[in-house]
């Protein structure tokens, strides 16, 4: 999905394509995403997930504007908590809680049938035990980060950017898994 074509139905890039968009952003190149990836929102700031989601661009048909079951994409800078970790707090005393180990994302070179790890993907969910409103829903995020081998080629101020894909969870049973 190098370039979006006119009349596309949905923006559904693969994991490796998502990392390519992030790489283009870090390298200050044109991303060719038709404006679907939002780059000026702090995903790890003072807003709640549903507020962040509303700042994103709908990734489907015009009638999908109110549908929060589709991912919306954001490139944001992580905030260092310590030398080895990042702050994932957000909104009114909530945070993004990592669900599993980071999974490697590979770029498949079809020309010579080889693959190389270009980054990783983490699954997170929003947790706020103090402030929970059923109407706000249950939110999940996939966070994509380029490999350190790729990032070392860029200035230090460009290395902490990640691509985040956020959407509302369809089932409340998934939310219970987040709290455990």
Instruction: Label the structural class.
Output: alpha+beta
Helix content: 10-25%
Indicate the low-confidence ranges by residue numbers: none
- The CATH fourth-level homologous superfamily: NAC domain
CATH architecture grouping: Beta Complex
CATH class: Mainly Beta
Largest sheet: 8 strands, mixed
Q: Cα-atom Rg, whole angstroms?
A: 16 Å
- Average predicted local confidence, pLDDT: 80
DSSP, total strands: 10
> What count of domains describes the coordinates?
1
Residue share in β-strands: 25-35%
Main location: nucleus
Pfam families: NAM
InterPro entries: NAC-dom (IPR003441), NAC_dom_sf (IPR036093)
GO molecular function, one term: DNA binding
Provide an overview of this structure.
This protein has 180 residues and is α+β, with helices and mostly antiparallel strands. It has one domain: Beta Complex (Metal Binding Protein, Guanine Nucleotide Exchange Factor, Chain A), CATH 2.170.150.80. It has 4 helices and 10 strands; from the N terminus they run αβαββββββββαβα. Strands 1, 2, 5, 6, 7, 8, 9 and 10 form an 8-stranded mixed beta sheet that branches. It has a two-stranded antiparallel sheet with strand order 3-4. A hairpin with a 5-residue loop joins strand 3 and strand 4. The longest helix is centred in the first third of the chain and has 12 residues. The chain is globular.
């Amino acid at each position: 999905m190098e370039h979006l074509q006119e009349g596309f139905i949905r923006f559904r890039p693969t994991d490796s394509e998502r990392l390519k968009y992030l790489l283009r952003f870090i390298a200050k190149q044109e991303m060719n995403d038709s404006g679907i990836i939002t780059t000026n929102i702090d995903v790890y700031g003072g807003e709640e997930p549903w507020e962040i989601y509303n700042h994103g661009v709908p990734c489907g048909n015009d009638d999908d504007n109110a549908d929060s079951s589709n991912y919306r994409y954001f490139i944001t800078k992580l905030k260092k908590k310590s030398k080895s970790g990042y702050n994932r707090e957000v909104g009114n005393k909530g945070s993004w809680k990592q669900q599993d180990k980071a999974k490697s994302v590979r770029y498949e070179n079809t020309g010579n049938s080889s693959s190389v790890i270009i980054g990783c993907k983490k699954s997170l969910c929003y947790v706020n035990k103090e402030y929970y409103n059923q109407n706000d829903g249950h939110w999940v995020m996939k966070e994509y980060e380029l490999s350190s081998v790729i990032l070392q080629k860029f200035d230090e101020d460009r290395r902490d950017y990640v691509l985040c894909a956020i959407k509302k969870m369809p089932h409340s049973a998934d939310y219970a898994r987040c709290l455990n």
